[in-house]
Amino acid sequence: MSFSFLPEYWPYFRDGVYYTLVLAFLTVVIAVIPAICLALMRLSKSKILRFISGAFIEIIRGTPMLVQVSIIYYGVFGAVKLPNYMLFGFMNFAMFLPCIIALAINSSAYVAEVIRAGILAVDRGQTEAARSLGMTQGQCMRMIVLPQAVKNILPALGNEFVTLVKESSICSTIGVSELMFGANLTRGATYQTMGPLLLAAALYLCMTFPASKLLGYVERRMRRGDAR
């Protein structure tokens, strides 16, 4: 095991860390919108809407992310000519967009269940009180339920970010220059295996460990507010 590759190949790992963090952050942000729609559809009185959202969630959660990324990249975007330019100097837009869409679709299925659980955790009596004051169902959801549900949802969204930091490594299979791609590129060029992989593992840990500790702190603060 040797780290003699670092002086020459460190930029691949540095850019891979940036790419991984951008992918994870944008995926969570983008996934929230369809996830809210899916959660509200799951809670709808319409059987059709419940069936559509339920089927979508089960299909996404029941198939591997690698298959989903491949379908989006080779199938959906295979016939679309995306502009081949570099974002921030090292992100290939033609690969970045399909990857982030695939990750967002996958994440939305999981976040939708988180949001649904957060909404159901709000006391039903508050909904009844709001309706008794003349609010419509939409006003009640927008002004009473969702603001309170956010408090229950935020820690889980943070956990989803931590998960996506690790799961974004699947994008290396289609040539996206994230952290694992940099490790594999270094392995192929230097014929060193353990060094690049251990460095990638250490960098993933450096990204996820502080985020996990921060989430734990936020959750403790929220519980302290509930106790008061």
Second-tier CATH architecture: Orthogonal Bundle
Count of discrete alpha- or pi-helical segments spanning 4 or more residues: 8
- Please state how the strands of the largest beta sheet are arranged side by side: 1-2
Shape category: elongated
How would a textbook summarize the main sheet? 2 strands, antiparallel
Mean pLDDT comes to 83
Task: Give an overview in words.
The chain has a single domain, classed as Orthogonal Bundle (MetI-like fold), CATH 1.10.3720.10. 29% of the residues are buried. By secondary structure, the chain is an all-alpha fold. The protein has a two-stranded antiparallel ribbon with strand order 1-2. The longest helix has 37 residues. It contains 8 helices and 2 strands. Strand 1 and strand 2 form a beta hairpin. Helix 2 packs across helix 4.
